[in-house]
Specification:
Largest sheet: 5 strands, antiparallel
Helix content: 25-40%
Number of strands: 13
Structural class: alpha+beta
Length: 333
């Protein structure tokens, strides 16, 4: 069976002049190599397709695949993560991970939280702000947490995201609106512990493979899972396995969110406790990073006894089951 790999290669975008922050969501060659080794071990004949532009070029030459392992993040717009799935659906080509609707919805944190809240899943009260002047009309109680509405990998999150009054909010809104050229999510600050949950599967076959606590080594001012902290996580962050009861509570919220948003095959849900100790939904990562050593999902999987090979295989099995396909030479982990 032929399987294609779609991805945005970080090294290519850095050569094009993007900054490390602008290219933060894209994948390194080490990630592509690691994924391809697992797929080949499963018996697939692999082909590296690259980004959406390369995919379109190959499709124009009448090339096709039985399955595509898609981790493309895209470059432009709030629907950028859905561009490759949309192309694949146009050509009726099966693919691993979430579909067009889920990826578009989940990237826009405001719209995503509307859906989560409508499903009675705990999430902090919020408003989406389009201009600095709208900031003066916010009715939420301070302190607040402020970030771009459609970014990932901690982009736009810094110690300045934590605001305690209107003047601080105005300054942060000015910075984010000017820098990222998109709406800003303003939400009530959650003061409790932070977690990320790993999910595999789709719909009723979904399961949580573990919950990992994110602990910060520095002061409260840096107590955010920011771009800097993610980039240099070995120096700023350490991960632990929380207590069994905390895991249970986090699993419940994570699974409910995963199913409500229609996520598929594998990814992460980020959570943070409120003042009462209830885990609240922060955001979902349906295209979670898959670097074998440095990405949160593989780190979490190892913590709960699932090696990298098993993680990738299980996500592929989920997709194969959805499409009623079978891969050669595999045994379910």
């Amino acid at each position: 069976m032929r399987i294609g790999l779609t991805y945005d290669l970080k090294e290519d975008y850095l050569k094009m002049g993007l900054s490390p922050e602008e290219a933060a969501e894209f994948d390194s060659i080490e990630t592509i190599d690691a994924i391809e080794r697992v797929l080949q071990d499963m018996g697939f004949s692999t082909e590296r397709l690259g980004n959406a532009y390369s995919l379109l070029e190959m499709l124009g030459k009448a090339k096709r695949w039985e399955l595509v392992f898609n981790i493309c993040e895209g470059l432009h717009g709030a629907g950028r993560e859905a561009q490759v799935p949309a192309i694949l659906e146009l050509f009726n080509i099966p693919y691993v991970f979430s579909d067009v609707l889920c990826l578009s919805l989940s990237l826009h944190k405001g719209m995503c939280k509307h859906v989560v809240r409508d499903h009675a899943i705990p999430t902090a009260d919020f408003q989406v702000i389009r201009s600095v002047s709208e900031g003066s009309k916010i009715k939420l109680p301070y302190p607040l947490f402020v970030k771009p509405v459609a970014e990932g990998t901690g982009k736009g999150i810094s110690p300045g995201s934590f605001v305690e009054n209107e003047s601080q909010l105005k300054l942060q809104l000015e910075y984010l609106l000017e820098t990222f050229r998109q709406e800003v999510l303003v939400e009530v600050y959650l003061p409790g512990r932070e977690f990320t949950a790993g999910l595999i599967g789709s719909n009723d076959d979904s399961r949580c493979i573990g919950v990992m606590e994110v602990n910060f080594k520095r002061t409260h001012a840096a107590n955010t899972y920011s771009f800097e902290n993610k980039l240099e996580y070995q120096h700023h962050v350490y991960y632990t396995k929380p207590e069994a009861e905390v895991i249970r509570k986090c699993e419940e919220v994570a699974l409910a969110s995963w199913k409500a948003l229609g996520c598929r095959d594998g990814g992460r849900v980020d959570l943070r406790m409120d003042a009462g100790g209830t885990p609240n939904f922060i955001e979902v990562n349906p295209l979670a990073g898959l670097h074998p050593e440095h990405s949160d999902l593989p780190i979490l999987a190892r913590m709960f006894g699932m090696d990298y090979k098993s993680l990738i295989r299980n996500m592929v099995f989920s997709a194969l089951n959805r499409y009623q396909l079978k891969a050669p030479n595999y045994e379910k982990c």
